Amino acid sequence: MGILKRDVSAKPGRNAVTIIAQGNSLKGSMQVSGKVHVDGLFEGDIETADDITVGRKGELRGRIKARHVNVSGCVEGELNCDSLHIERGGRVQARLYCDALTIDPRGCFMGERRAREMPLLEYHPPEENAVEPPDPARDSLQDLDFSLIGSLPDRITLGRQED
């Protein structure tokens, strides 16, 4: 008697869950339809249009692309998602491309984070006969006494005074 039937597959539109159980180790590239839960080890590329959850004993290493990622275990590599949540005890060491990042106390993020939709900066040189508008910030620099910079101390120590 089994709980899985041979001739029945997941129906389209229904969220299937792919589980990498504790003690299992996979390497390679996966494109998954539905959610992914990792309690074991996965090394490689994994992509889903849904969510990825990394359990406390789970480890993901490689390139990860998902809608939402929730980490209680460890993630290393490159992570591209709409939102990332690092729970207590979770560790992420990655180049992160996401719009929303939340970290619980005792969660850890080390790496670089950039927004997914970074607009490209373009340089437009001024036209030849264009007149620049006045810039109050630039104009106020003319009134500063730059000789005072040399009189500043090399080191400043901040501390509390007890009354």
TrEMBL record:
InterPro entries in alphabetical order: BacA/B (IPR007607)
Superkingdom of the source species: Bacteria
Similarity remark: Belongs to the bactofilin family.
Name by which UniProt lists this protein: Polymer-forming cytoskeletal protein
